[in-house]
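We recall that each integer encodes one residue's backbone shape. We quote one record:
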Amino acid sequence: MAAAAARRLHALTAPDVSLEIAPFLLEPSPKHRIQTVAYNGQVPGPLFRMRQGREVTVQICNRSADPEVVHWHGLALPSAIDGAMEEGTPMIAPGATTRFSLTPSPAGFRWFHTHTFAGTDLRKAQYGGQHGFLMVEAADSPGRFDQEVFLALHDWQGRDMGSDDGSMNPVYDVTTVNGKMLGFGEPIRVRQGQRVLMHILNSSPTEVHWVALAGHRFRVVALDGNAVPTPQTADMLRLAPAERVSAMVEMNAPGVWVFGEVRKHIQATGMGCVVEYAGASGKPVWQQPADLLWNYSQFAAQMAQPTPDVQHMEFIFTSKFQGHGKEELWRINGKSYPQTDEPVLTAGQRYRLLLKNDSMDDHPMHLHRHRFEVRRVAGSSEMSGLLKDVVLVPSKTTAEVEFTADNPGRTLFHCHQQNHMDRGFMMVFRYA
């Protein structure tokens, strides 16, 4: 009786977080109209702020035409609510509403997004507008700041361009920052002397992006929402799909500037926004950075710490040509999902994953429900202390990451490119 009464009270109480999934017409510029699906009638979706360790009630209503699911990227949640059907999270049928409670952890810049199949429909899943910001607050912060800015990089209106090897690579006509093309969104308004903390998300379905802020430098303080052991100053940032960078910017160059993609042909499709100082006017200025330089090791601890009692697992990434005119399959250790193996984890055990990329593509690899420590990437020296949930493994190289199996349940491991996931680039870990 008491349990039934508690359930009735839960149903009557207003949720802490409400999401409505529904069709939405995005207008990134006066000349562009994109029919998509979005959260709460906006792209990107709402910014949710939660307190680490404090339970919140979530309600999701699906007003779209397709079954949906919301993945809470970067949180250590039970499999049943993490937001991946491969782990056992129930799909939300069209017209249905689901409600559950979650306890957000760890603290930091996380995000939420759809986790469904798109196939050849480049309007569905991550190709569309279902992504939003999540900040899990803790007592400490990356440092004092005067203003906080959240920016989402996204690619739209793709079309598949096939190649002789059977691969299908989307090409995009429109790119945006926070749903607007360069020159058509509200500028980021700042004042001289401010310290602005920029939280930047690459929500692109498939593309790595390089971004810079003309006239300024970034002080990188966190990657994927996790404070880095060694903050560094950089002229530009690299973000693979699903990666996040948090960087402090000293506003010490009054004027009107462009924040945008450093590759001119991508910025020309819209990926940028204006940063405007108080009292400044004139045409926004862009300054082209000299070199594309980025590596994870610069943010790691200075001295690599060995890990005792670690077990090794090797995973080899390849693609399989299926014949001219057919899509290729992506494989882990020679198998495509759902035929992939299910490695068994022992709770409390430390694992080192050896990620050997034998393919011609780079792959942003994401582990659900856990964080991992990046140990090596592409021949780098051993590193430690750098915690992430996505690591970009360059073509024909090997990366090594470590994690502790501390969250029992089915755990999805996959490439975060939508077209690769759809073609089998996934596997599920299970606990003994």
